[in-house]
User: Which sequence fits this backbone?
């Protein structure tokens, strides 16, 4: 199951999985492109291991890396509580 975490102004969606038994959380980032497709990247926390990066520039990936470093504590917490909506009782 993937839980919504954040939507950026450029319609980039950031979602995350529940925490796996090994402590990993999958974070998936997806941005619509101008051709009806998507740019995407996957990061595994807490190791910050990136996989399947497609379409993003190095500058954009630096931005996402900083964003995840600044918010990893929240994502890791929400991954154990059924996502942000469940954790916030919405």
Assistant:
């Amino acid at each position: 199951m993937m839980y919504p975490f954040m939507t950026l102004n450029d319609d980039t969606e950031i979602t995350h999985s529940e925490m796996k038994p090994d402590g990993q959380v999958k974070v998936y980032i997806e941005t619509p492109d101008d051709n009806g497709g998507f740019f995407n990247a996957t990061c595994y926390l807490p190791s910050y291991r990136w996989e399947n990066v497609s379409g993003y520039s190095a500058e954009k990936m630096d931005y996402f890396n900083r964003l995840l470093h600044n918010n990893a504590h929240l994502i890791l917490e929400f991954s154990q509580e059924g996502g942000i909506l469940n954790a916030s009782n919405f």
Summary: The chain is about 30% helix and 35% strand.
